[in-house]
Structure to design on (407 residues):
């Protein structure tokens, strides 16, 4: 009973996913991916740091006894009971800089979440198209496996009537074994695709995923010819926020050269004398400015320059990846159309006519094996180009919408 309940719990999220709808698969991955949950939590934490960043320090309350004699008796002239308070007044420019730094951290995390979402969607769709293509190739190879059965039957009939050699039957059976080998290879490739897809959906590796239907044509998947990342690209925007944050850090460190002012006020009561009060102002002397403030300013400048360099590095990487996607899409589109409209139909027609000719003794056995092999090869190539076409569009769209990683 426990095993049955465990299996039902494992199967429940999988049953809710329509694996034939790639967008539903993507949505399932986005809902469960820990990277997005982590970024949401980090963003919420960063938002909570905005208000405290610009808050003034709390006042300090003091109370006590001064100059009490060691035998706990009061000295009429010296012993004083006192209360007081102190407050540090931070410069408004510092508070504003601290708040800006906290706000820019929130913006950077939000942009990182957008980039992560685009990357997760890309990874899921790439794995889904790999799975769909493999299932399509398995189906096609299975159909060709049925065709070779007809070839074997024809070879046996001709051998039994003495119009062909036994070698034709053996070669046809060998081709059956080769197709069985191809089916085993494709099943292994399917397991590899699932090994990538299932963890993205938070499903166990043993989950039974039904065969996925590959679209027979992806011509409606278009791609823009531009390979320039948009100005509001989330990955670049996150780095730009980091540059702005470092600019504020530089400003904040420079303001540290202007110390904050502290005011302390106290009231003292002496039982036998007049009461007293004191007001004291405190200000830090930046005597070690070169060792503390200036070094931190130089550090912030170096971090800002590094962030600027990462922007240029990311932009170049995105441009190169988008250009590759455009080139891959163009090549795959041409090959896909050629295979779909010319090569595959011609190969199937050649096989059908050769098989009919062989059955009547008008074609040699080598011809039928050649046409069958060509048909299978070209049909599988069509699905490969179909997959490359769709994956190029997926990659390009992800890069346009925010993916920072090009892998």
């Amino acid at each position: 009973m426990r095993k049955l309940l465990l299996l039902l719990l494992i199967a429940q999220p999988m049953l809710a996913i329509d694996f034939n709808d790639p967008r539903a698969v993507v949505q399932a991955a986005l809902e469960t991916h820990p990277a997005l949950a982590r970024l949401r939590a980090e963003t919420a934490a960063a938002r909570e740091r905005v208000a405290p960043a610009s808050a003034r320090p709390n006042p300090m309350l003091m109370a006590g006894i001064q100059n009490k004699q060691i035998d706990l008796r009061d000295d009429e002239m010296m012993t004083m009971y006192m209360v007081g308070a102190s407050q540090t007044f931070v410069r408004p420019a510092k508070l504003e800089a601290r708040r800006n730094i906290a706000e820019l951290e929130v913006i950077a995390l939000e942009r990182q979440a957008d980039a992560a979402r685009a990357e997760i969607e890309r990874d899921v769709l790439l794995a889904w198209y790999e799975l769909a293509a493999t299932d399509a190739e398995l189906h096609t190879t299975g159909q060709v496996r049925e065709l070779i059965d007809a070839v074997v039957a024809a070879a046996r009939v001709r051998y039994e009537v003495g119009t062909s050699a036994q070698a034709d039957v053996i070669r046809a059976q060998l081709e059956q074994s080769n197709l069985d080998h191809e089916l085993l290879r494709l099943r292994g490739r399917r397991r590899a695709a699932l090994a990538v897809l299932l963890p993205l959906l938070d499903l166990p590796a043993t989950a039974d995923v039904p065969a996925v239907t590959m679209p027979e044509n992806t011509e409606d998947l278009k791609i823009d010819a531009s390979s320039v990342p948009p100005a509001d690209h989330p990955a670049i925007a996150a780095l730009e926020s980091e540059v702005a944050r470092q600019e504020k850090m530089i400003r904040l460190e420079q303001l540290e050269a202007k110390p904050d002012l502290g005011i302390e006020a106290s009231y003292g009561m002496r039982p036998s004398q007049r009461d007293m009060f004191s007001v004291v102002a405190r200000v830090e002397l930046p005597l070690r400015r070169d060792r503390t403030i200036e070094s931190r300013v130089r550090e912030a400048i170096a971090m800002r320059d590094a962030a600027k360099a990462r922007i240029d590095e990311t932009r170049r990487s995105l441009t190169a990846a988008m250009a590759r996607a455009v080139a891959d899409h163009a090549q795959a589109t041409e090959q896909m159309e050629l295979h779909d409209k010319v090569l595959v139909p011609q190969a199937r027609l050649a096989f059908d006519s050769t098989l009919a000719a062989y059955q009547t003794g008008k074609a040699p056995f080598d011809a039928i094996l050649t046409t069958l092999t060509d048909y299978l090869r070209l049909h599988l190539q069509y699905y490969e180009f179909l997959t490359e076409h769709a994956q190029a569009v997926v990659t390009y769209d992800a890069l346009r919408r925010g993916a920072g990683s090009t892998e």
About this structure: Residues 26-55+108-237+320-401 form a domain with the Outer membrane efflux proteins (OEP) fold (CATH 1.20.1600.10).
